[in-house]
Design goal:
Layout (H helix, E strand, L loop, with lengths): L6 H23 L1 H8 L29 H13 L6 H13 L7 H19 L5 H7 L3
Helix pairs in contact: 3-4, 3-5
Length: 140
Amino acid sequence: MLSTVSWQAFFTLCGVTMAFYYLVVLGTFYRSEIMALLQGKFSIIPGRPAKQKYAGVQSQALYNTVPVPLQEEILAICRDAGPESNRAELFYALGKALQTHQVLSDPSLQETVNSFIKDCFRENAGIDLDDAAIGLLWRG
């Protein structure tokens, strides 16, 4: 009976079985990461921002220019904030986050970051920040 099975058929069956096994394992343990990658929320290339839609902040082409680590810091601050949050503490935390990113010396990038901050706080924390207050963040 085994003499009727060719080596090609045997290796094909082994390859298909291994591929199925790894798909099941990857699907079981990495389902959320795979879905994020397929939806464009996760970049597999380090340092290259993904097309992201962070918890209510709509993904726009202009937000792709904001460094991803800065976006994550701002979002962490937004998620911790609420409508009754102390504004002085929020601005202090935002100012510290902006100071750690020296690549933000370009004025056009600052405007993009300002828009990102406004949208993030409006949609995640229910706080409307005005342009003048956000502009003070850049002065240290």
